[in-house]
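Hi team,

Below is the intake form for Magnesium transporter MgtE intracellular domain-containing protein from Alkalicaulis satelles. Please confirm the fields before the structure is written into the shared record.

FORM ID: S-0412
PROTEIN: Magnesium transporter MgtE intracellular domain-containing protein
ORGANISM: Alkalicaulis satelles
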Amino acid sequence: MSPRPLLLLSVLLGGLLALKALSLADGAISWMSGAAHAVEDNEPAPAARESAPPPLPASRSVEEEPAIVLPSQSELDLQNRVAQRLRALDQREAELDTREQLIEVAERRMDEREARLIELRDDIHALVGELDSQREAQLNALVRVYATMEPEAAAPVMQTLMETDRETLLKIAAQMQESNARRFSQIMESANPRFVAELTMMLAARAQPPQTRAELEARRVAAAD
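The structure came back. Fields below:
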C-alpha cells in the first residue's frame, strides 16, 4: 500500500475523533447547563437568602384618631389632692408675704415713733434744763436780795414765806447757808424763835437722804416746782 492512502485514512480517523470529541463536549456542556439550572432552581434567590425584615405596619390614615386612655378614679383623686395642696401652699406663701410686709411696716412705724420720742425727750430735757437755769437764776437773785436787806427787815418776809411758800423759803435758806452763812445767821437772830426752830428742822430734814420712794418723789416734785 502506498503512503497516500494511509495519510488519507489518518485524516479521516482524526476527523472522526474530532467529531466524537465535539459530540462529547456538547453533551458535557448540555449536562452541566442542566445541572446549573437545577441548582439555580433549588437554591433561593440571593436577595431571599437573608431573612426578610418584618413587614412594616400599615400607615395610619389621616382620619384615624389615637386611642384616648382615661385616668382612673384614684389618679383623679391624687391629682385633685396635689392641686389642693399647691393652692394651699400658694395661699400660705401669700399670707407670709403679707405678714412680712405688715411686720416691716410696723417696724418702720416703731422706729419712727422711737425717733420722735427720743427727739421729744431731748426737747424736754433741754426745756427742763432751761427752766432749772431760770429757777437757779431767780433763786440766786432772791438770795442776793435777802442778803442785802437788813436782818430786821428780812426776817419778817421769810416768816411770811413760811405760811405761803415753804418750798421757796427752804430753797432760799439752804442757798443762803451755803453762799452767805453769816447774813443768814443774822436774819435768824432777828426772827421769831418758833420760826427759827421750824425752819431749822426743815433744813435738817432736807439734808437727810430720803427714806422711801414716795419721799424721793415728793422731793423731786418739790424741787421741780
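SUMMARY LINE: Residues 45-49 have pLDDT under 50 and may be disordered.

Thanks, M.
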